[in-house]
Amino acid sequence: MRDVRKVVDILAVAQPLQQAMRMVAHAWMHLWSMTAAIPKLKALTGDLALEAVVKDNTEAAFYCGKILSDQCYIGTELKHLHGYLDHIMTGEPAVVNGCSEEIFTGALPQKTGGGHTAGPLWFPVHGNAPVSGCAQG
Q: How far apart are the first and last CA of the chain?
């Protein structure tokens, strides 16, 4: 029973953990993108005002847009990470408390009767002919 509880605890936070890791990976890519875009934009603009250069130079406008979108993600979307981390650390116990040990036995309860045999990969179709649940070639 103790090992089952560990599995249930892990599965209960699997989706929030996956979402948190996705956000961290996206933030890392945005930071990397900014480290590449900022020097290129500075090389294009030099000491000139950014607004004046962006109006006439499409390449400068592109790098300016990249930097702004990176800042937007880090400043707004990455803040959601705290919610996922709070959920992972505290968690809602209803998922864990509502699970029984039978869920993790590896097999669903089998019903037999009516001339049908029901195994893990078999299910009855029209009449008594069992057909495999897997695609046949």
A: 41
